[in-house]
DNA sequence: ATGCATGAGAA
DNA sequence: TCTCATGCATA
């Protein structure tokens, strides 16, 4: 990849920018996918029960993944790593409190059958068949067992609260987080849910950020310096996703004012610095990341194509079949659904 | 830049 | 249990 480390101490002053929280809007997104009709194919061992979607999924999978390419490597299932690193993410020195939550409302929309991107596949690994309704052995052999250690890491979340926005939509959430406040910020009436704006802002943001010589990680950390109520730091991942518009619409809308505030403050600070020529001079357990091999991934995608929201039983069956932990499969589906909901050029474009 | 994961809150 | 926002770990 590339290393971009232009760490530079940046001191920002708290800026008091009036937070304006954006309401959400329904993100209209259209996700369409094509389900090909393809009956045929069977010869299951468990025949009898199966049938249903999963089976078809496999058939589809076989067809779907016509000629694709795949990666040559086949990593083991999971690997853990333990290391001690004093991650000081952003936990600020004292405060233990700052966990507001971001909650953005969400509008829900109609989903469509999913849509997934072409993946890699090569040899047609025909899946077997599962019995949908019944859960074999009660629990798929793998089951969630103990995914071993999940170290609860400090939860720090930044918060973004939104309030109203009357719409037929449903949710609105705030997180109580003890501190009695419910930020009653100015009822926001704010921003434009205009995807156009977001897109151009994200682009400008990235460019100005680079101009400042700041990395995505720097931005995330610096956010904590802007003492915007309810806003802590964010990770490099999130900044990156913001810039590449790979966040949900609501999330983009919520983050925009915050990043905008940071940008202005950062540029202001730099101007100031430029002005005066004299200054400066210049442990823990790590979470493990399961790696799902290409063949398994192809199967999952095939199932997802026909049934984005499998029941617990089906998930268990799939997990057993692919020899993955049930929880891994469940999470995979969740993430897949989230992906399909992301912005980028999904619908409005 | 992304894959897999966690957790809070809403169903 | 799912959705959503987010993050760690990793390619």
UniProtKB/TrEMBL annotation:
Positions of the Homeobox domain: 283-343
Residue spans binding DNA: 285-344
Record SUPFAM superfamilies: Homeodomain-like, lambda repressor-like DNA-binding domains
Residue numbers spanned by region Disordered: 93-125, 165-195
Major subcellular site: nucleus
PROSITE patterns: HOMEOBOX_1, HOMEOBOX_2, POU_1, POU_2, POU_3
Biased amino acid composition, Low complexity: 93-106, 170-189
Function: Sequence-specific transcription factor which is part of a developmental regulatory system that provides cells with specific positional identities on the anterior-posterior axis.
Protein name (record): POU domain protein
Species annotation: Dicentrarchus labrax (European seabass)
């Amino acid at each position: 990849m590339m290393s971009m480390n232009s760490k530079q101490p940046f001191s920002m002053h708290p800026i008091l920018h009036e937070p304006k929280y954006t309401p959400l809007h329904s993100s209209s997104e259209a996700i369409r996918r094509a389900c090909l009709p393809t009956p045929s194919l069977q010869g299951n061992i468990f025949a009898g029960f199966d049938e249903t979607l999963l089976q078809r999924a496999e058939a589809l999978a076989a067809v779907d993944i016509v000629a694709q390419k795949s990666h040559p490597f086949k990593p083991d299932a999971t690997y853990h790593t333990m290391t001690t690193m004093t991650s000081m993410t952003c936990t600020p020195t004292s405060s233990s409190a700052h966990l507001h939550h971001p909650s953005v409302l969400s509008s829900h929309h109609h989903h469509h059958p999913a849509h997934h991107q072409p993946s890699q596949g090569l040899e047609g690994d025909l899946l077997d068949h599962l019995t949908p309704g019944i859960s074999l052995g009660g629990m798929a052999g793998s089951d969630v067992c103990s995914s071993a250690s999940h170290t609860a890491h400090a939860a720090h979340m930044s918060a973004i609260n939104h309030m109203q926005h009357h719409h037929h939509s449903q949710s609105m959430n705030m997180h109580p987080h003890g501190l009695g406040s419910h930020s009653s910020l100015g009822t926001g009436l704010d921003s434009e849910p205009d995807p156009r704006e977001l897109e151009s802002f994200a682009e400008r943001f990235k460019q100005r950020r680079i101009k400042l010589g700041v990395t995505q990680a720097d931005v995330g950390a610096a956010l904590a310096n802007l003492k915007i109520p309810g806003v802590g730091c964010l990770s490099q991942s999130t900044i990156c996703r913001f810039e590449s518009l790979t966040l949900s619409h609501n999330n983009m809308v919520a983050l925009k004012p915050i990043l905008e505030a940071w940008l202005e403050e950062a540029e202001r600070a730099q101007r100031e610095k430029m002005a005066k020529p004299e200054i400066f001079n210049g442990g823990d357990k790590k979470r493990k990341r399961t790696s799902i091999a290409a063949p398994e991934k192809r199967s999952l995608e095939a199932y997802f194509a026909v049934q984005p929201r499998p029941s617990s039983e089906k998930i268990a069956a799939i997990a057993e079949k692919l020899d993955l932990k049930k929880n891994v499969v469940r999470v995979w589906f969740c993430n897949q659904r989230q992906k399909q909901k992301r912005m980028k050029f999904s619908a409005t474009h």
